[in-house]
Task: structure prediction
Amino acid sequence: MAVLLTLIILSTLLPSLGQQQLSGFEGGAVGSPSLLNRMQNAQQHGGEYAFARIVYDSPHSPYNAWFGGAWRVDYPEADFNFMEGIHLWAGTNLHLASKPVQIRPTDQRLFDYPFVYIVEPGHMELSDADAAALREYLLRGGFLMLDDFHGEIEWAHARDQVKKIFPEYEIKDLPLSHPIFHSHFDLDQVIQVPGVAALIQGVTYEKGGVTPHYRGVEDKNGQLMIFMTFNCDLGDAWEWINDPRYPAQYGLVAYKIGMNVVIYAMSH
Result:
C-alpha cells in the first residue's frame, strides 16, 4: 500500500503520460518557476535531509563558459525539484531543509550531510586535498553518488578521479539484488535515463554510451560507499520533470533511483 501511495504521489510531479514530440526542446521552460521562486525565497532552516551537491574544479571543461563550472550542470532546478519530490513522497515523516546545499569536499560541514551528489564527473579534477577529504567522509559513513557521464572517454576520466579517493578498491557493476535497488522501491532493470541532448536527437544515449550501468565502490566489508549511474543522466530528468516534453517514464525511474539511493545512504 505504501509503495502504491508513493507512486500516486510521484505521478503528481509528472506531466501527462501523453508526451509531446521533442521538437524545439532546448527552447522550453526549465523546471517550475513558481516552485523555484517559492523554495529559493523561503526562510532558510536546517533539517534531517538536504540535497548536497559537491563543488569541484573543471579547468578544461566547456561547461565553465556555459554554466560557470561543470559542477553547476542542471543546477539549481534539479536540486530543488528532487527535494520537492522527496517532500511530497515523505510528507511530514522527514524534516527537510529549506534549500539544497553546494559544498566543497574540503569544507568541514561536509560531515553534516549523509549523502552528496556529483554531476559530470567526466569533467571533474580533484585535488589531493579534495580526494583526501572525500575519502575521510566516505570512510566515516558518508555516501557519494556520481551521475551524468557518458562514453569511454568520460568513463576513463571519472574512474581515475574515483581512484584518487580509493586506489585500493575496484569499481564494479552492482547486481540488481543489491539492497540499494530495494531500499524502498524494487528496481529490477538497468534503465538508461536520458538527458535532453540525447532526446533531441531521438535517442537515449550520448557520446557513444549506448549501454547503461549502475556501478559502485564497496569497502573491505562490502559496504557500498559510492554509487554511479554511468551512461545515464538522472540530473536532467530531475531538472526537466515539469516539462511535458520530457518522457514521464524516464522521470519516474530517475526519482525512484534517487530516492532509493537517499534511503540507502541514510539507513546504512
Observations:
- The domain at 2-10+51-267 is CATH 3.40.50.12140 (Rossmann fold).
- The radius of gyration is 17 Å.
- The chain is about 35% helix and 15% strand.
- Residues 105 and 130 are 5 Å apart (CA to CA).
